[in-house]
Design goal:
Blueprint: E1 7-11, H1 37-46, H2 61-69, E2 79-85, E3 92-98, H3 102-111, H4 115-125, E4 129-131, H5 134-137, H6 145-152, E5 157-162, H7 167-182, E6 188-192, E7 204-210, H8 213-221, E8 226-229, H9 234-254, H10 262-280, H11 283-311
Parallel strand pairs: 4-5, 5-6
Antiparallel strand pairs: 1-7, 2-3, 3-4, 7-8
Helix pairs in contact: 7-11, 9-10, 9-11
């Protein structure tokens, strides 16, 4: 039962802006999103979000840009999506950290080479952190289940509803979370649109019982969260990819935000010209389909491994997590779950 003094506050915990750089083929000078921070904020509010944050890759520049023009926003907090590595398993994971500042951002970036040291720091500081799109992280490197479960035990929160992932991939994360919980550790579920275009913002979100931004973050860290919204289909993801490609060409031609200096702009323009035939021959669609199939395969393999473990008599008895399973988490929490489709708040029209 919700406290009469609190209500469920909603935030899309996975939004990108134009400050999110594309890590592959740096010569292209491409970004994986071209949304202006101001426009992203306004779209999130229009889509019914009570609180707003941005999770650009390893930078808080988008958050700082918005706050430089609107410093007193009571419904905004700084976050980022950290690319972190685990030396023990060889995994490279994306972790969203919420409610940070510039000093903590610098420390997080210093620690991201060892995800276990990073998670220990975040826990000491009381910073909420969620492991994002697990299926995507297992495409390149897939550790054995015992190693993976030990790694996941570092997290209080798993993103079980990613609005840019297909239903099967999200279901696999929920299965993993349930398996970890069956071993004695509570896992909070989060949701976020993983929006790389304005069109996707607000299609998935995380609800937390709270009164304001501060209590939202406090209860989020305690795992008292539930996801809402929906998964994606392949056609909507392909459409997003083509929107980004179009904005890439616009960025080279107009350079409105000064993303390019003269030499880098000439190189990017040459690469864009060479790659134009590939774009016209549906390379983005083909690449997106191939990636989606690999993610789905990794998710299916993970679910099968867990099903096999649960089917073995006494199979759970051999499992033990590397963290203290008796570590208390404040509050009773909210039931995890997600709606099957985007549901607008009263008076909010979907764009």
């Amino acid at each position: 039962m919700i406290s009469p003094f609190r209500r469920l506050l909603r935030a899309d915990l996975h939004i990108h802006t134009r400050h999110s750089l594309l890590g592959t083929l740096p010569v292209l000078g491409a970004r994986d999103c071209y949304s202006d921070p101001e426009a992203a904020y306004e779209r999130a509010k229009l889509r019914g979000m009570d609180l707003v944050t941005f999770t650009d890759h390893d930078t808080i520049a988008g958050c700082l840009e918005l706050l430089s023009s609107r410093p007193d926003l009571p419904d905004f907090f700084i976050s980022e999506e950290v690319t972190a590595s685990d030396p023990l398993s060889g995994c490279r994971l994306h972790v969203s950290v919420f409610g940070i500042d510039e000093e903590r951002h610098r420390e997080i970036q210093r620690l991201r080479g060892n995800i276990r040291e990073l998670m220990a720091y975040l826990d000491r500081e009381g910073i909420p952190a969620a492991l994002n799109h697990l299926g995507s992280s297992l495409v390149r490197h897939r550790p054995d289940l015992a190693t993976l479960v030990d790694l996941l035990s570092e997290f209080r929160l798993l993103e079980s509803l990613n609005g840019a992932q297909r239903r099967a991939s999200n279901a696999a994360v929920d299965t993993v979370a349930g398996f970890v919980e069956s071993l004695g550790k509570r896992v909070g579920r989060t949701g976020g649109s993983d929006a790389h275009t304005l069109a996707r913002i607000g299609t998935a979100w995380t609800e937390v019982e709270a009164t304001d931004r501060e209590s939202y973050l406090l209860n989020l860290h305690a795992g008292e969260a539930r996801p809402g919204g929906g998964s994606s289909n392949l056609s909507s993801v392909v459409l997003d990819v083509y929107r980004i490609v179009l904005w890439y060409y616009r960025d080279i031609l107009g350079n409105r935000h000064g993303h390019f200096e003269a030499p880098s702009r000439r190189k990017a323009a040459l690469c864009a010209l060479v790659s134009l035939p590939l774009h016209l021959l549906a390379l983005p669609a083909t690449g997106t389909l191939y990636r989606s199939l690999r993610v789905s395969r990794a998710a299916l393999h993970l679910r099968r491994e867990i099903a096999l473990q649960l089917a073995v008599p006494g199979g759970k008895a051999k499992w033990g997590l590397g963290t203290d399973l008796s570590r208390p988490l404040a509050g009773a929490g909210l039931a995890a779950g997600a709606a099957d489709c985007w549901v607008a708040r009263p008076g909010i029209d979907e764009l």
